[in-house]
Design brief:
The chain is α+β, with helices and mostly antiparallel strands and about 140 residues long. The protein is built from three helices and six strands; from the N terminus they run αββαββββα. The strands form two sheets. A four-stranded mixed sheet has the order 2-1-6-5, covered by helices on one side. A two-stranded antiparallel ribbon has the order 3-4.
Length: about 140
């Protein structure tokens, strides 16, 4: 069990905890990732076993660092403007098996072992309908 897990549990129980955010991420690579002008990078999430695409989300440097540190997917919520631990409240976490980067270094592919459905609707994947189905709904 990690300290971050305990803090997350306590916070969910309404017990105040001091959140310590890591400082700026120092990328030690001759090949840095290409975050956009808002500091975000696209993250495609795929089931490591079935290869089904589960969802698309955004990561900033903090979300990527937290994902690498904890082994569970963290994203940046553009609507709430906050870090988001996938499944932190629902229990539908995503254990990250591998993170791959595309040829342009501007998109990440997270291969995960999901603990439940990825979509907030309860569907396994956020891509549960065709364009035609969506337009006809």
């Amino acid at each position: 069990m990690r300290i971050a897990d305990v803090k997350e549990y306590l916070a969910a129980q309404g017990i105040p905890v001091r959140q310590v955010e890591p400082g700026p991420v120092t990328v030690r690579s001759a090949n840095p990732l290409k975050f956009d002008d808002k500091g975000l990078i696209t993250a495609i999430v795929q089931d490591n076993q079935t290869k089904q695409v589960l969802m698309v989300a955004w990561m900033n440097e903090l979300a990527l660092a937290r994902t690498e540190a904890t082994g569970e997917a963290h994203f940046w919520s553009r609507s709430r403007q906050e870090l988001w631990h996938k499944g932190g409240t629902s229990g539908n976490t995503q254990k990250v098996v591998e993170i791959r980067v595309d040829c342009d270094a501007d998109t990440l592919l997270l291969l995960v072992e999901p603990a439940g459905p990825a979509c907030h609707t309860g569907a396994v994947s956020c891509f549960f309908q065709t364009l035609e189905e969506y337009r006809d709904a």
